[in-house]
Amino acid sequence: MACPIGTEDFATLGTVAYMAPEQIDGKVLDERTDIYSLGITAYEMVVGKKPFVSDDRRILEKMQLECDLPDPANLISNLPIAFNYFIQKTCRKHPAERYQNAMEVLKALKSLAAEIGLKGYEQPPKMLNMSSLIMVYKDEQKLEFKNLMDLIHSKAKELGIALKSADLKDIGYSDKAY
Fold first, then answer.
1. What is the 3-state secondary structure (H, E, C) of 48-108?
2. CA–CA gap between residue 104 and residue 121 (Å, rounded)
3. Cα dist. 46→21, 41, 51, 72 in Å?
4. Is 174 helix (H, G, I), strand (E, B) or coil?
5. Using only C-alpha atoms, what is the Rg of the chain?
6. What are the tens digits of pLDDT across the range 93-138?
7. Cα separation of 91 and 73, whole Å?
8. What's the whole-model pTM score?
9. Which of 16, 34, 39, 85 fits 91 for a cystine, CB–CB 3.0-4.6 Å?
10. Which of 64, 81, 73, 19 is nearest to 43 (CA)?
């Protein structure tokens, strides 16, 4: 929520186009106020313009308070129904009708992403351990070295350990550099 640094006047300042009705009315604000702003942002991202537009702050505030959100599906014909519902719910005039907290919003977005086939990234394990091993061998030991590496790779796979090996020349090492 926007207000000048050093003040606590959340009721009358901020970017009006993103302000929830309760913020404009000077009522109690909570995270549902920010959820409304998120919905306006989602609307603008999908449609390409804000739902309520006016150069006059008072008219814009009146629109935010009294006008229904224009249905984004009327402007974007292939908008998934679930995404339209998400935008509509986040932008409801009464806070009790919106998502009640950020966890509800996150759950809705995850469900929406699954429904429309968006894939996120896999969370990495909490902690990874990594070790390195450098083996130096002579040309005449290549066969024995290959057999040893095959054995190590096989055992690592059996244990579920990811193993990456590379010749030093493949990673830029040259004995001439030293």
1. CCCCCCCCCHHHHHHHHHHCCCCCHHHCCCCCCHHHHHHHHHHCCCCHHHCCCCHHHHHHH
2. 20
3. 22, 9, 11, 8
4. coil
5. 29
6. 999 999 999 999 999 999 888 888 877 666 666 667 778 888 888 8
7. 14
8. 0.61
9. 39
10. 73
